[in-house]
Amino acid sequence: MADYRIIVDLSQRKLHLLNGNTVVKSYPVGIGRILTQTPLGEYTIVNREKDPGGPYGAYWLGLSRPHYGIHGTNNPASVGKRVSHGCIRMYNQDVMDLQSRVTLGTRVTIRQ
């Protein structure tokens, strides 16, 4: 059974999916603006929703920090940039791949 965890590296603007200590996949992400930075820390995935509507793209993975999550986007040009209000944006196909691999309770580390 896979022991997945997520590391979001803000300086690289990458989300790394790990199984144990091995990187399985890395995805480009959009992160928070200077004034609405993505919060550093240790979190878990606490909820998930397909097609959440609005700007959240194909999928929402909510973090244990209220109002923050990992989600798709209806603006793919924003991935790789500092554009969000603190959430982690992914291409829709990438967030769909990620959500198929992780479960509620998956650990998420956000680091500089």
Automatic annotation (TrEMBL):
It holds the Pfam family YkuD. SUPFAM superfamilies: L,D-transpeptidase catalytic domain-like (SSF141523). Its EC number is 2.-.-.-. Keywords: Cell shape, Cell wall biogenesis/degradation, Glycosyltransferase, Hydrolase, Peptidoglycan synthesis, Transferase. Gene3D superfamilies: L,D-transpeptidase catalytic domain-like (2.40.440.10). Residues 4-111 form the L,D-TPase catalytic domain. This is L,D-transpeptidase. The active site is at H71 (proton donor/acceptor), C87 (nucleophile). The lineage of its organism: Bacteria, Bacillati, Bacillota, Bacilli, Bacillales. InterPro entries: LD-transpeptidase, LD_TPept_cat_dom, Transpep_catalytic_dom. Pathway: Cell wall biogenesis; peptidoglycan biosynthesis. It comes from Alicyclobacillus fastidiosus. It is an enzyme of class 2 (transferase). CDD domains: YkuD_like. GO terms for molecular function: transferase activity. Belongs to the YkuD family.
